[in-house]
Amino acid sequence: MGSILKKTNKEYIGELSFEKDSFQMFLPCEIKQASIMKIILSDERGKSVCQKQITINVGKSLLNFDCSSIKEGRYNVWIEVNGQTYLRQLSIQGFEESPDFISRLKKWL
Predict the structure, then answer these.
(1) Mapping DSSP to helix (H, G, I), strand (E, B) and coil, where does residue 55 land?
(2) For 12-108, CATH number?
(3) What are phi and psi of 67, to 5 degrees?
(4) pLDDT class of 95 with cuts at 50, 70, 90
């Protein structure tokens, strides 16, 4: 018996990056089927800060979004495209990563 292989039409959604000079968020992606992409930016407490909906074409893209109205901080970004949901994190403006427990403990000692 031969095996039947299914071709998958899985999208590629890359990691988000932020450029301080232009206040732009960049998202590399490759979409197999033209669709509408929904993006929800929420703060660390889960409060929605920004929502966008864009039409995206088939193929590789580098999407960019204006973040000038968003406060400094760390955010969770929910991306929905073609029935799939992706979660990414984003740090806006030189917001420093919070130190781990050991680093904080050393400062107290």
Answers:
(1) strand
(2) 2.60.40.3080
(3) -120, 20
(4) very low
Distances (CA, A) of 86 to 74, 81, 108: 17, 8, 38
pLDDT tens-digit map of 27-70 = 999 999 999 999 999 998 899 999 999 999 999 999 998 888 88
18 φ, ψ (degrees, to nearest 5): -125, 135
Residue 103 binned pLDDT confidence (cut-offs 50, 70, 90): low
Can you read off the two tokens belonging to residue 48?
């929605």
Q: Structure tokens of 59? A: 């193929």
Question: What are the sequence ranges of the domains in the chain?
Answer: 12-108
Please compute, for residue 42, the number of CA atoms within 13 A of its CA located in the half-sphere on the CB side: 11
Q: Any idea of the CA torsion for 34, 75, 42, 59, to the nearest 10 degrees?
A: 0
103 or 20, which is more confident: 20
